From TrEMBL:
Record protein name field: Transcriptional regulator, GntR family
SUPFAM superfamilies: Winged helix' DNA-binding domain
Matches recorded under PANTHER family: GNTR-FAMILY TRANSCRIPTIONAL REGULATOR, HTH-TYPE TRANSCRIPTIONAL REPRESSOR YTRA
SMART domains found in the cross-reference section: HTH_GNTR
InterPro entries: Tscrpt_reg_HTH_GntR, WH-like_DNA-bd_sf, WH_DNA-bd_sf
Pfam families: GntR
Domain HTH gntR-type residue range list: 5-73
Keyword GTP-binding: no
One Gene Ontology molecular-function label: DNA binding
Length: 123
């Protein structure tokens, strides 16, 4: 567990990662709050807070008396969110720095394609 991040956020991120990598498929049952609490040795209320974050996002839904399930379209929703976050955290600052040093979008694309001139033979 990451000391710098709230446990409930880490629980939500772990469930999201399992959905993204296909470990938990859409319409399949997600781990219960109690399972998450026991596995991570945390308070069930903390695990529930992480699960409820995913319910609020539309990633999980509850089947009364059965448990939590992965919502249809959850993987695509998470991919869209991650792509947007990637653009905001990495691409936008990259392009801003490129503009400061006189590189255009095509220059940046060329650098990405060629690995910035670094190859196994030319580190």
């Amino acid at each position: 567990m990451d000391e710098g991040k709230p446990l409930f956020v880490q629980i939500a991120e772990q469930v999201e990662a399992s959905i993204l990598d296909g470990s938990i498929a859409e319409e399949s049952q997600a781990p219960s709050t109690n399972e998450l609490a026991v596995f991570h040795r945390i308070n069930p209320a903390t695990a529930a807070k992480g699960v409820n974050m995913l319910v609020d996002k539309g990633v999980l839904y509850k089947r009364r008396g059965i448990g939590m399930f992965v919502a249809p379209g959850a993987r695509e929703l998470l991919l869209k969110e991650r792509r947007s976050d990637f653009a905001e955290r990495y691409v936008q600052p990259l392009l801003a720095e490129a503009r400061r040093i006189g590189l255009g979008p095509e220059d940046v694309a060329d650098l990405v394609r060629t690995g910035a001139g670094v190859s196994p033979a030319n580190p």
